[in-house]
Design goal:
A hairpin with a 2-residue loop joins strand 5 and strand 6. This protein has 148 residues and is mostly beta strands. It has 2 domains: 30 residues, no CATH class; 82 residues, Cupredoxins -  blue copper proteins (Immunoglobulin-like), CATH 2.60.40. The protein is elongated, with a radius of gyration of 18 Å. The strands form 3 sheets. The protein has a 4-stranded mixed β-sheet, covered by helices on one side. Strands 3-9-8 form a 3-stranded mixed β-sheet, with no helix packed on it. Bound molecules: copper (II) ion. Copper (II) ion binds next to loops.
Amino acid sequence: MLVGTAVLANCAAPARDRANGGASAHAREIVITTVPLLTKEIATTYQFLKKDFAPGGVLAGKEVYEFMPSTITVFEGDTLRLTFINPEDDAHSFVMKDLAVSIPGQSETHAIYVAAKAGIYDFVCAIPAHLPMMRGQLVVLNQEGTAR
Ligand SMILES: [Cu+2]
């Protein structure tokens, strides 16, 4: 907990320090939970979902999960200490430019990612049954606070 406190204090540094050639890049603790929204199990509670999951239904062969949060905003040069929490028994993955993480069921998984260049980067779970719904974006701002 002391390390987390130190990171938070460090990230509260004035924005002007950021214009210092990246010397003030921060480490950021980011927790992403994989959350089931519309899964086959939920069809036992919401009967109308049975039609959606049936052949020809809008969710045939699919299940809806989300990454929470699904939008992450950081600054260029930041080191992201990612923690993925998957409380459910289905496996997931977190795939984006230069990073691919397997997320087993009922697990906590860690990864490190350096947000090297400003831009907006899509990430997805690559499990076919979870696409195209399980996705998000990493927004990497430059020192001026834009993502271009
Ligand atoms: Cu998934």
